[in-house]
Amino acid sequence: QVQLVESGPGLVKPSQTLSLTCTVSGGSITTNYYYWSWIRQPPGKGLEWMGAIAYSGSTYYSPSLKSRTSISRDTSKNQFTLQLSSVTPEDTAVYYCARGTVVAGTWEEYDYWGQGTQVTVSS
Fold first, then answer.
1. How far apart, in whole angstroms, are the C-alpha atoms of residue 57 and residue 53?
2. Contact 68, 61 (CB under 8 A)
3. 3-class SS of residue 122
4. Is the pLDDT of residue 6 over 90?
5. Mean pLDDT (whole number) for 5-20
6. DSSP character for 73?
7. How far apart are the two ends of the chain, measured CA to CA in Å?
8. Fewer CB atoms inside 10 Å of the end CB: C or N, the chain?
9. Confidence of residue 103 (pLDDT cuts 50, 70, 90)
10. For the residues 63-74, what does the mean pLDDT come to?
11. Is the pLDDT of residue 105 over 90?
12. What is the pairing mode between strands 3-7 and 79-84?
């Protein structure tokens, strides 16, 4: 059973960089052919795919967030990390990490999700 757990600060100040880590157990993030994504849901809105890192280490980003987003991984710890720079209150959301079989597919193509972590951007 694959498990994903998000961790990071729950409160970030405007203009700072949001950093979250997803720790994966029960499966390797280098296993062919999975894609490890970050997805968020602002209050009262739908899910938004932010970006992903592939089993190979290749990265993919949402065009709307690409200039502010960076995803990396630590294979020795079986973790992948999201960094979102220059945050504003509009970046307040529940942030999820998830495993998918494609990049930015439909939500049904993600088979394992973390429980989500609330991040609030406020001074």
1. 6
2. no
3. coil
4. yes
5. 97
6. E
7. 39
8. N
9. confident
10. 97
11. no
12. unpaired
Using the structure block, give the residue that is written with the tokens 């938004």. Answer: 48
Reading the block at residue 84, the tokens are: 């979102």
Amino acid letter for position 123? S
Q: What is the Cα–Cα distance from 19 to 74, expressed in whole angstroms? A: 14
Cα(119)–Cα(103) distance, integer angstroms: 24
> Distance of CA 30 to CAs 48, 53, 63, 65, 97, Å?
24, 10, 25, 25, 16
Instruction: Return d(Cα 113, Cα 4) in angstroms, integer.
Output: 6
Q: How far apart are CA 91 and CA 45, in angstroms?
A: 12
**Cβ(23)–Cβ(81) below 8 Å:** no
Contact 76, 63 (CB under 8 A): no
Q: Report the chain's mean pLDDT, rounded to a whole number.
A: 96
The rounded distance, in Å, linking the Cα atoms of 29 and 67 is 25
| Pairing state between β 117-121 and 48-54 | unpaired
Is residue 107 scored above 90 in pLDDT? no
